[in-house]
Every structure is written in C-alpha cells, then in structure tokens.
Amino acid sequence: MKIRNSKTPDSLPDLYYPLSLWKSEIRRLVSSQNLGCLIQTCVFFLMFFFFVWLWLDPKLIYHGHGQSVIYPICTSGTNIFADFPPFPGKVTMYIAARLSHYYYYSWAGALIITVIAWLLCVGTGKFITTISGGGLRWLRFIPAIFLLAQHGRYYPFLLAENLALLIVLFLLYLYIRIPLQAAWFRLVVFMVFSAVIYAAAVRLFLVFVLLAGIFELFNNRRWLVGFSVFFSVLLIPYLTNTFIFDLDLGDAYHRLWSFPLQLTLKEKILAYSFFSFFPIAGFGCGIWRFFAAKQKPEKSRSGKKRKSSKSYRGPRTPFSMVAGLRRSKIKWFLETSALLILTAAVVGFTYDPIARQNQRIDYFARHKMWDELLQQASKPSLQSCDMFICHDVNRALYHTSRLLHDMFLYPQHYAGLLLTPNKRLPKQMMVQIWVKSSNTLYELGHVNEAENASYEALSTLGYYPEGLQRLALINIIKGQTDAARTFLHALSRDFLYEEQADQYLQRLETDPLLSTDDQIRRIRSFMLVEDSIKKTTPKDLLEKNKHNRMAFEYQMAFLLLTGQHNAVAHSVKYLDNFDYPQGRIPRHLAEAILLYTAMTGKKTDLHNRRINAGTVRRFQKFTQLFQRHKLDLQTAAKTLEKEFGDTYYYFYFFLLDRSELEV
Amino acid sequence: MRKQTIVFSSLTLVILSACALSYGLRGRKVPIDEYNSVARLPSIRPDYCETVIPPNIAPLNFVVQEKGLRFCVKIHSKQGKPIEVFSRNGKIVIPEGRWQKLLNTNRRQQLCFDVSVKTGDDERWNRFQTITNEIARENIDGFLVYRRIHPAHSTWRKMGLYQRNLQNYNESLILDNGYYGRGCLNCHTFCENRTDKMLIGIRSSIYGSSALLIEDGVVNKIDAKFGYSSWHPSGRLAAYSINKIRLFFHSAGDEVRGVTDLDSLLAYYLVDSGTVKTAPQISKKERLETYPAWSADGRWLYFCSAPILWSDRDTVPPERYDQVKYDLVRVSYDLDRDEWGEPETVLSAEDTGLTILLPRVSPDGRRLLFCMCDYGSFPVYHDSSDLYLIDLKNLEETGRVKPQRLQINSDKSESWHSWSSNSRWIAFSSKRQSGVFTRSYLSYVDEGGRVYKPLLLPQKDPTHYDSCLWTYSVPELVTGPVRVTKEKLGRVVRGSRKISVRLPITSATPKPGVVPGSRQIWQERE
Prior knowledge:
Chain A is mainly α. Chain A has helices at residues 22-29, 32-56, 58-62, 90-100, 106-132, 142-152, 159-177, 183-200, 205-219, 223-243, 249-254, 265-294, 298-301, 318-321, 323-326, 329-350, 353-366, 370-377, 387-399, 403-406, 415-418, 427-444, 447-461, 465-477, 481-492, 498-510, 518-526, 538-544, 549-561, 565-569, 587-600, 613-628, 633-644, 648-655. Chain A contains 34 helices and no strands. Helix content of chain B is 11%, strand content 39%. The model of chain B is unreliable at 511-526 (pLDDT under 50).
C-alpha cells in the first residue's frame, strides 16, 4: 500500500496516496479500532467544549480585555498593515485579535478554543505517529489538556501563540509530506517555511526548528540536514530581519522566546511547558522509535522488501507487543477513562478559582449586575482584600442602596474606594484603575476626571469600546455633540457595539444634548462648573450639588475607611438632603457616631433622627467584650470577628491599616 | 469534448456579458434636463463652499447631506469638460484625473458644483443653488507633513509622523514610535519648506531624548532635547527651545488638560561645527523664551517671551500659571559674526491682553502669522486660540504693528500654522469640527494679506473624519516628500552613534546622561 524509497525503507513517510488507495484508506478509518479512536476523540472534545463554554466561560476572558492588555482589538476599519511597522508575529497577533472578539459570546469562544484544541490534537497526532512509527498516539491529547489548564487560570490568554502553534504544525506536516529526497531541496523548503514562521508566528519558531530537526534526525536519519536545520535558528532571524523587518539584532532573537504578556512564575512555567512539550515529545518518540527499531526482526533490516500488510502499524515496539489488547473494548474504556481522569487532574491542579471569581466580579460590574456581584463577592474564598474587588463591591453596594449599611460585610480598604492612580503602580494596574475609576467617577458626576481616566485607558489599551462609549456620553454632557458623534461612529465599527452606537446616533439627531435622558441630566447637574486644578473629592461634588447622593455616600465611606468617625458624626445633618428613611440613620454611620461618642464623650446632634436600638445594644456588647480582651488584640479580633466583623468599630479597631493612611 | 467546449465558452460569454452590463449600468449617467430649483445652497460635508482651492489639490470629495435616493453633482468651470458624479448614498467621489485637468485649465476661475437630489424614482430632480469656489492661480506645496496621535493625556500608545501627498490621497509614514519602543515624536521642522534638511524631535525612555538631523539623505542623531525649533534660511543653524513642560488637569471646563512651561530658554545648533550655543538675549533667567521663528532673510529671530511669575520651579502647576502671557519679541542676528542684538518687543501681551504664541514668518518675508489665546504657552488646549496676521512691511516702515485677527477663526482652537513656500497658502490645525479632534485645514492668502475660508484636508472617503479618532497636528507644508526611509530613521534613533553636544545649563536643561522616565520626558500633546 505504501510507496517507499528502497534506500531508506524505514525512515521516510508516505509520499502520496494514489486515488485507487483511497477506498482502502476509508475502510481503514472506519475499522473498529479507528472508530473507537474517533469516538474517544469526539467524547473528549465534546466534553472539552461544554466545559469551556459552561464553566470557564470565555466571555469572562473577553471582558478581561479592559483589565489586561492583550491584543489591539481590530475593528472593521483597522488597517493592520499600514498602521504599524511590520514585526515578527504580527499576522498571528492580528488573527488572534479578530478572533478574540468572538469571546464576547461564550459559546463562540468555546468553539474557537475547542477547534484550536482539536486541530492541535490532529497535528500532534500526525507528528507523533510519524516520529514514533505508530505508537504513543495518546500523546495527541496533551496540547488540549494544556489549553484547558491555560484558560483555567484566566491570565492574559495566549491565543496568538496557540494559533502560531497551529501554523507550525501545519507547515511541519507539509514539510514531512513533501516528496523530496534531495537534501539541498529539503533545506530550501525548510528555510522558506521557517522564514514564514518567523514572520508570522515568531514565538513558535524554535518549536518548528526543533521538530523539523528531530524529524530529519530520527526519521530520515539525515544528519547533515538535521544539524543544518538546528543551525538555522541563528540564520533565519538574521536573514528575515535584514530583508523584512527592521529590529535590533538582539530584539530579533529575543522575540523567539519572550512572551509579550506579564505572566506569573506559575503561568510562565505552564506556558513554556506547553510549548516545549512538542520538541520533548518529538525527541521522546524518536528515542522510542530508535530502541524499538533495534528489536525488529533481522529480515526487516536486511533490505528485503517487507511484506505488505493492512494491519501493519509501524515497527514492532514494546507497545505493539500488547497488540492483542488493542482491539479490546476494555482497553478503549480504560484509555478513555485515563484520559478524562488525567484531564480532570491537570485542570484541577492548575485551575485558579480566585481568578475566575475575580473575572466574574469584573464582568458583573461591567454589566451592572449588582446582586450577582455581591453574591459572588460574599463567597468565602474571596475574603481577601483586593483593591479592585473592594471598588466593585462598593459600587454595587451603592447601587443597591446598601453602602452605608453593609459595606463592612465585605473586605475593605480605603484605596479601593475611588482607585486613585498612583505613579508607583505598574502600568498593568494603572490600566485597571483607569478603566474602573472612569465608571465610578462618571457616576459620581466628576466628568473631567472620568474623561481623563477614559482617555488614559484608551491610550494605553489602544482600543477600548467602553471607553469610546464613555467619552461619547461625556461629550454629550459637555455639549460637544460633534465629538460625541465621532466616538459613536468609531464605536459603530465594532460589530458588538454597532447597534448601541447607532441608537445613540439616532437619538442625537432629534435631541443633540440628550436633554430627556435621565442619566445624562443627572450627571450634568452634578458636573463641576468651577475649574480647579487641585485634586477633587466627593466633598467638592457635594458642595456643587447637595443632592448628589453618590458623592455623599462615597464621602461617608471614605471617612469610615480612613477612621474619621468624628467627621461622620458631624455629617448627620446632610442625611436630610436625601431620601433616607425618616428618623433613621444608616447602620455604619450610627456605629461611627456611637464610637465617636464613646471615645470622646461628646454628644452628637442627630437632627431628629435616632439610632436603632439593636445597633446600640450591639455596640454596648462589643464594648464590654472588647474591654475584656483589650490587652490581647489578636485574641480579641478572633473572638469578636464572628459577631461584629460586619461593623465599623470592628474595622476601626482590628482592620484599619493605619500605616498606609495618608489622611 | 467539442460539445463541452461550446457549453463552457457560451457560459463564460454570458457571465462576462453580465459583468460588463452591470459595470456599465453602475455609474450610469442620467441627463438632468428637467428639475425643480431649490433656492438655497445644499448642505454638504465637509464644507467646501465659497472658498479658494489650490489648483493642484486632490479632489474635494464630499457628502451631500440632503434627503434623497439619488444624487448628482456636476462640477464645471469656464473651460473643459464638466464632471458629473452620480451617487445613491450621497457620497460624492470625484475622479482624480478629470478633476486635476479641470482645475489646471481653469486657474483663477470659478469652480461650480451643481448639486441635484432626487427624492424618489418617479420624482423630479431638485437642483440646489450652485456652490462656487475659486481656483487659485498659485499651487500649494505638494506635501503636508503632520503628526498623527490620539487625543492623549499622560499616556500614549501610537503616534507617527506622516506625509500626505496633497495632489492625491497618498499618505505615507515618515516615522512611527513603534520603531523605538513607543517613545514620543514631537516637532518636525523643515528648512525653507524643503525636506532635504529637516529636524525631528525624539523622546524615548529607552533611547533618550534626541533630535534627528536629516541633510540630503544623511541622518544624524543630535544628543540634545529639542523643543520647538526653526531653521535659519541659510540652513547653517537651527534655533530651538528647551522647555520644562508640565501637564496638569482641570476639574471643570471643556478641555481637561493644561500645560505650563515651568522654565524655558532658546538655544541654537550650528550645523557645521555640531555645537549648541545660547546667548543671554534669548535665555534670560527671569523670563520664559519659546517658539523661535526666523525671518525670511535670516536677520531676525522672532520668539515668544514671558516673565516667570513663580519662584518655585517644581510645583505643578505653578502659582499664577493662568496669568502667564507671552510677548512677541525679536532679536537681530549676524550669521557671519555669530552675534546677537538686543531683543525688542514687537507686540506686547499687555497691549493685546492675550498671550502671543507660535510666530511664523512667510517665506517672502512680508507677513507674520501667530496665534493668541487667554494665557499660557500651549494654544491647542485653549478654545480662545485664534490666528492673527502682522504686516512686517508696516513694522519696518513705521516701527509699529497692527495685528489683524483672521476671519477664518472659529470658536474653537486654531494653532500650529505653517506657510507654503510661495507664501500664498497656510496650513493650520483647528478643533472647529468637534472641539476635541484636531484637523488640518488649508487657506489661501492673497497678495493683499486676505485669508480665505479654509478647506479641510480632503480625504478619499468623504466620511473619513466622521469616525476618525486621530488628531492631525503640526501640519507643515513642504515642496517634496521626505525620502529617508522610516527604517533608516528608526535605526538612527536606536543606534548609539550620535553628535554629542554640551547644553547651556539652566533649570530647563535636562541633566546630561540621564534617560528620563517615560512620565517625565514629555508632557504636552497634539
């Protein structure tokens, strides 16, 4: 069936399939053994798809774009080749950018990931079987498992690199299949392919070179070609850089192994393990084949033509010694179970539940799903103080009218309230700060600060649809309708936001200032009119409009988080400006007033309001218990946490970080 | 076999015929003999009405903003065959070749646009009043060089220096900050509108601040931070400013950003000796000097100068930053002796009540174009910034100047102006379209100094600016393209070879050998 070169009977792969042999090939495919293999693959990838879709939830990755700089997302008008100088890997980066749009829909994102995983599986299977001579096919699932592990951690996902890997495997497959015997010709083809890979998928160039080299050494036994292939690692970047790109030579080589993303050590290990799996597996299979070949019967080495056999599946190897077991259903079942167990174990080991919960909180905040956000944030695994979670939680609490009642139910830190940019923070964090704070500042009515943060995020991310929308609204508020139209037209080029942008554009036709829009009217009334170059606080906004409830609550929250209960105690009079229940004081304000009175002995004017009797009783109980444990604060904190952990005074005595406080 | 060939050939013929037919019908012209007259001008975007057009400009494509199903624009002048453009969506895209021919044969003639709109298939055409423009006699310089950047605050990602062929729509990159690790590209300066001698300011946290000196295709890196610069007409020296610029933010108002020069001075780079010098006349300790501009004969250096109102030169913004107003000053210079005269105030801020910025002398030496705004040194952030013209002949004759506020100003910022080599055209930046995005405009200046209604830099797609988030700033008219490749410029920026110069030490001078952090190196935008 297979046409082989008589000079290298064991080494060369199949060169071509005459049409007449397709029939037998199809028959082979549907043979019971391959059918089992097919079912196994289908089961695995079906489960893979549903797991990614329903559990990993690719939309969480899409919405991570605002948090972690990944790719410049391409809109329909983006001219990818004109806007930037060419650089190695640009092609895969932009394909990834295009594809990453579809992560907006979880099912579509899951489909993309599954297809990539499946193609990697096919490519790996082809390579492994070629190198090993038929055995170790089960290794083909490893890349898919790596992909799951990669996505389970929600770090800036390596879609471009995964696509690059596909290109590598495809070109490698072509390289293996080319019916060329002359060494120089194989080298020329290799050089062309590697130049293409360097240009299109630079970070996987090394993988391609290693795999091609392994193939030449172990399969073809062409030592000269093999070593020339390895040598090309030095040559190709230099040549490609000379003729196509214009990088520093050091940079041209540095790009071979560096990831543009900031990864933690664990993530780096995972990423490098994934990409080094291929050469390691290739080398292992080559060794496997080498030793297996030694055990072959003499007659196959003597140059005699091997008897053609339909059941021939490579050289006899230790693996093939248990060939009898191959056809058994038990083996299929065991193999499939082992595969699923291995997958579950790897995913379980590498999966990052905190990252998932953070992503979910971010997603809920972006979509103003406040109840879901608070439910997610109350999970015990999230009881650590993350600045961004604090920020989102406080925003959710405000929008559900619970900020001054329940804010200490959640971990708190004053820095998370308004996310003040700090030049000392890394750029990655600054982007998150700009993205998140622009929303809050906008809602507070601090329009110029929100505009500034949106521009900063837009400039850093390159493209940021929420930012475009925000800037459009800000310009409408400021009466700059033409600028708003420009932002909306730009937004409408993104198919995900097209409808939304068009709706605004239509509304602007009839009402250029959107004067009938409640939200716009509200923020316009909060907006500062008098210019100041000093840092503006919610207090300034409150002075501009005493009915700005969000500014009031954020100001109170800030005072509480910075331990200024005396200022809180003197702010009760402002409650009348808002629709708080008549005669009542929000719980945390009441707790602060009680503490103020207890600590200073001064009475607070409650302006015809009263503190809930339960709140008073609770405070008294806390005081008694606190006095009892006063000398041992650690024990006191532990003892009192369960009962008073959600109170201001517990936060004040045990959680307030005074070392960083710059009040 | 024969039968198959016949069938295949027939099929091909049918397909080709269908394609030819549909192509022929695509731009089918319908003679408009009968129409209703509409007694008003049509609304078109961009506004290309009643202006003066360069005879060598690319077609002024526009959108007819009238309700209709079919649109027809007939473009005609005194001589030559009229151009008729039909459209179904209101976008009028004029054929380049015929446009150029029409303009060339009708210099100093009127160019008319007859806009007709049909609101239904069975309706009659409505013809609006004819839009008339005048075709100038003098060409505009063939290329416009500008910087493209998004409206940035304290961070940025992409910015590039581009050149646009004004006779068509070709835009090509001169240098992009992607070539040197996302640094900053600031001002670009040409010697007498020529591209064979130019300067590009570079700031990079990786490769340091420098200026690229391009002379006849040879690129050198000057190891100095050039601010705003101006070439002496001889090409033997370039005056430049050294500015300690800081950015701050306003809590209210349309423009969030504010810029102030904590300190600044002027220096000059002598090309032959590769040295940098300054003189007490242009670098007074108690004053801020900036925006140098040489007169056409090279005898005078015009610049802006303001007293420093603060003692603390580190606080941002400094006290009374909103009271800083620059005077227009000039100082004589003897090139052969390298000697400076005493500065004299041409126009004082006290007289105008405004700060005077960005002086640019026309190449014929006759006029000086500048802008004035409320306060400060960065007009693009001030809506109050307007363009003004001074007749220098009057200055020489009477010793006094009378600034003329140009009619072309809008209620938004106008700034970053430049002259064409024949002094008949100006290019400038304006935010008139949206108040946010800076666009480039071209205006004709006649011999009497009258400046005509500006036209927005035309684009092939007339809706280009609708969704364009770029700002086009510092438009400089040049007679030919920059021929040095971006790769070469990028290599020089990244390279270690440079012309080392010793800078005059002031508080505005960057410390030698220090590569400033990305947040310090560059503050102002656009």
